[in-house]
Amino acid sequence: MANYEKCRYAINIHGIVQGVGFRPFLYRLATSHNLLGFCRNTPGGVYCEVEGRREDCKNFIKNIRENAPPLSSVKGIDVREIDVACDENTADEKTFKIIESEHGGHETLISPDIAICPACRHDIFDKNNRRYLYPFTNCTDCGPRFTIIKDVPYDRENTTMASFTMCQKCAGEYTDPASRRFHAQPNACPVCGPSLSFLTPDGSIHDSADAIKLFDEYIKNGKIVAVKGLGGYNLACDAENEAATARLRELKHRYGKPFAVMVRDVECARSICYVSPDEEALLSSPRAPIVLLRAIEGARIAPSVAPGLRRLGIMLAYTPLHAILFKDRDTPLVMTSANVSERPMIYKDTDTEINELFTISDAVLTHNRPIYRRLDDSVTFVAAGAQRLVRRARGYVPEPISILRGDDGKSGDIIAFGAQMKNTFCLLRDNEAFVSGHNGDLDEPESEKSYLCDIDDFVSMFNACPTALACDLHPGYVSTRVAEKKAAEFRLPLYKIQHHRAHFASVLAEHNISGGAVGFIFDGTGYGDDGTVWGGEAFVGGLSESKRAGHLLPFPLLGGEAAVREPWRCAVSLADGAMCRKAIENLFPDREHDVEILLSIAKAGINSPLTSSMGRLFDAVAAIAGVRGGAVDYEGQAAAELESVIDESADGAYSFEIYKNENNVLIFDWRRLIRDAIDDALRGVGAPVISARFHRACCNLVADAAEILCQKSGFYNVALSGGCFANVFLLEGCIRELRARGLRVYTNEKVPAGDGGISFGQAA
Q1: Which fold has domain 550-755?
Q2: N or C, which end of the chain is more exposed by having fewer CB within 10 Å?
Q3: pLDDT number for residue 336
């Protein structure tokens, strides 16, 4: 009889439960169980009360977690039985209702922006649908979220849609429990919602009726059009048109870094790239990131799109507007951030910013739904059967990453300020880490200004009360300077975390490894404990403490920062260190005079800082192999091009020597490897073979050194991180060799292995 008695429960649901159709889900669930009550958004998530038979109430609670909306993420459900009593919400209660949201704190989780769902895609291409070709169609399963929300809870009045009053039909959908637009906050249609405009430099403004047609005409004629997306403006041009893409490079001052390409659907992606099932799933996911795919040789893509690279960054049309742009288009579009290289992406609609767009484009396809916060496209790839992030932004931010904290988060909020390049920052609250979107390189004054604004926005949005701050050890980083200023201003403790230890910590925290591990951190640069430039490091330890247990044999960077820009300088330094002075003349006959000057300066100890950087070793081998000897246009270019030429069928491998120094630290000696690579190059062995042999040497180095360090430490977990591990051949090869030795391998999957993951590691 107990199951038939009337009872009432109060339920608090925490997690990503706003902007994902959670209240409509609760409404339908309660109705199906014949329950009375209500639900509402709160600053902490969703609160509901249900009343009815005990058995029905318990089934309702069970189904909340088991059948939650696919875009939601339930982190916790607190349930308590309460009296069957009346208050202002329950008086005259006869049904289950969605009531007005509760305002207050800021503990709720906000949904990332979601790509157009299949149902909305069907709507915009159905000629009988009132949203036919309407570019702002959305529902509870898709559309803008993080980029339009101003405050929590997630209600229309707290978004940039507040100024658009719903028409009668949209309001009817919004209040209809049977509609998938039931309580869809950005709900709109051509009658009441945002509209397109097409702007040209002469001041002409064309409305929605002509905007798409004009876009097509401009692209067909080889023009560049700025397109307003979810998180900012992109620059679009015909990806098959070499003149257009080359001109785009000139306008952006982006001379080598690859452009992303947007295609209509997976079939179009298959016409230019190889697409595995895992890659297809990632492309087609609600997150809809850019996915790095191996290009088909001879595919009709302009050479200027991704010069010297084997992989293309491909994304599907992820908004209704993008889908409409591809309605009658089979050919791909370049879709790259609207900015001059390394400056923040343009996202506002002020006269100043529109005029700036006209300096890098021929026209602007815009609309009147404001973007509240800038957010770049995410960049991913698949390796060893898992998703890897190069840039974590749209579709992922601000979704938190759960971690274990020794004090269970009782020490309070922590803000970590990240690195100088590929910057992100991170807010650690309780057991959840909120990593920001991509802030780029902080050298540019505009990037620094944007960085400061974004930090303030995060602190406000999450109502953070930091009790400690963390930053990089490098004294010259903008992020370090900002952290020092904030620590002094608010009298907070500041923890300076060595760059590569933060990389190591990012893997340990992501996988909640509470014991010890051996870590290999390979990247281009990072300020070391000894003041030298690190980058080819091995660590042993855990989150609380780790020691440097191995590193590349240091070598001088000839000319300092110039050696980062010019790989041949690294090759000269390493060749000299490997006692191949004579071979340098044969490798670089046109630089004989420069070489003499550099080596004499290095001998005098002038402008030749020591480094143990694996990234610079990759640069040197790229120069030796003849892949990239001159100046690079972007960080990691030489290494990426070296990977792109690799012949996986080539036999043989170079080798490192591993020995202990006087401090019992392993030294990864590259001298024999460099001698062998130079010998091959001078004998006419091709770059694809040299690349393969070098990559295999790096994989064998990691496995051999790991075996030594694991046996010595008793830790059999191995962590891999750092920007070099964006290299698929290196990453998969290291994983394969380590597993063959019976070791457990952990890598970054939820944050980038590069500097975009540094802030997460600092916070952890």
Answers
A1: Nucleotidyltransferase; domain 5 (3.30.420)
A2: N
A3: 97
